[in-house]
Design goal:
Layout lengths: L1 H26 L6 H15 L11 E6 L6 E19 L4 E6 L6 E2 L4 E6 L1 H35 L9 H33 L2 E3 L4 E6 L6 E2 L4 E18 L11 E6 L2 E13 L9 E9 L10 E9 L5 E3 L5 E2 L4 E7 L2 E12 L4 E5 L6 E3 L13 E4 L4
Parallel strand pairs: 1-20
Antiparallel strand pairs: 1-19, 2-9, 2-13, 3-5, 3-8, 4-7, 5-6, 7-9, 9-12, 10-11, 10-13, 11-12, 14-18, 15-16, 16-17, 16-19, 17-18
């Protein structure tokens, strides 16, 4: 009996558990398992042939089409004004300054006496030489007269009037006196020139810019007394960098300004070049003549010279970002047949529009706007063209 009761209880428990499981299954029949759903979608996508996710975007690189351009540029270079002529006047003999007839700022004419030096010994030597010259001239006159008399007598038909030895001695005496006279004449000429050194004269038209002695001062030979400058025309010297020489070669005129007249422009005319490069500065010295007849400008003034530059043939001007520079090379990146190529270039002038380059480039080439050594030759990308240059 007890066994029958236990069996009946177990049978009822099993039936209750089975009913509970069935009710739970029916309650969850409206929900979806995410993992199962994803797998189903993936399976459906695979069945339809569509990709499971979107492909990565292609690398987009900015590029431009190369165009030739005529390079024009104006550069400002420092320069200096110097006198067209400048001379320091020195004393050539020792003496005392007797008169100073010029001072700084005085305008003088060529040949004008500027100073007189008093040197009595020079005048004395000149006087003595002139006296000696006169005496030698008298002796020469006497010996020449005596020789002429003897010579005429020797031509007489009567033999033995003049001994041949006397005629020869007379001629030798005349020759010696002639040589002595010529020597003294040259000596007198030299003393006269020395006495002329006592007068300091202007070598050209100009202005006195320095005075180093006053009346009464004792000056030695080679002592500087005055400085004369010709500033009616000034020389403007400009050191032109080597890179600009060919581009500026056609310019004959330039404009410049000075601090004294900041709002006024002056003109210079190219007259001469050194035609050699200074190895220290890598520049060529150009000289321009500046008309200074109004005397507005002064020698020694620092100027700001503007020189126009221009190529006679078209060239290529690139943005700075299109040029890559490494320790080994300077290059641009060209796109040819969809692939990258490195093209070595040499840099020219820099302008507001960009940098001038020279290399194996041609009009119509496609170049990258931003060149970098990280983009290796042969790589591909989506090349997006922008503004041409």
């Amino acid at each position: 009996m007890i066994f029958n009761m236990y069996y009946s209880f177990c049978s009822r428990s099993l039936a209750f558990g089975t009913a509970l499981v069935l009710l739970t299954a029916c309650g969850n029949s409206g929900k979806t398992d995410p993992a199962t759903t994803g797998a189903a979608v993936s399976g459906a996508a695979a069945a339809s042939g569509a990709p499971a996710s979107a492909a990565p975007a292609a690398d987009t690189v900015q590029a431009f089409v190369l165009k030739a351009d005529t390079l024009k540029k104006t550069v400002e270079l420092p320069g200096e004004l110097i006198p067209y002529l400048q001379t320091d006047l020195f004393a050539k003999v020792q003496g005392y300054v007797q008169v100073m007839k010029a001072d700084i700022g005085d305008r003088v004419r060529k040949g004008q006496t500027l100073a007189i030096i008093d040197a009595p010994e020079v005048n004395t030597q000149f006087t003595q030489s002139m006296a000696a010259q006169q005496a030698a001239k008298a002796r020469l006159t006497t010996s020449a007269d005596q020789y002429n008399r003897l010579y005429r007598a020797s031509q007489s038909p009567s033999p033995g009037i003049v001994a041949p030895v006397d005629l020869e001695n007379s001629r030798n005496q005349m020759t010696a006196d002639s040589a002595s006279y010529e020597a003294l004449r040259q000596q007198s000429k030299a003393y006269k020139e020395v006495s002329g050194y006592l007068y300091i004269t202007a070598p050209f038209d100009g202005v006195i810019t320095a005075r180093k002695a006053d009346p009464g001062a004792l000056v030695n030979a080679n002592a500087m007394l005055l400085t004369v400058q010709d500033n009616n025309t000034l020389r403007l010297r400009v050191a032109v960098p080597e890179i600009y020489i060919s581009a500026a070669g056609s310019n004959k005129n330039l404009f410049f300004s000075v601090d004294a007249y900041p709002e006024q422009r002056f003109t210079g005319v190219l007259t001469r070049k050194t035609e050699t490069i200074d190895p220290g500065t890598r520049t060529e010295l150009w000289e321009f003549d500046v008309d200074n007849s109004k005397h507005l400008l002064t020698a020694g003034t620092f100027v700001y010279a503007k020189i126009k530059l221009g190529r006679s043939t078209p060239s290529f001007v690139l943005p700075p970002s299109a040029i890559a520079t490494t320790l080994e090379r300077k290059f641009v990146i060209k796109v040819k047949e969809g692939k990258v190529q490195w093209v070595d270039v040499r840099q020219g002038m820099t302008t507001d529009a960009g940098i001038e380059v020279f290399g194996d480039l041609a009009t119509g080439d496609t170049l990258l706007v931003k060149a970098t050594d990280e983009r290796k030759p042969g790589t591909q990308a989506y090349w997006k063209l922008g503004m041409g240059r």
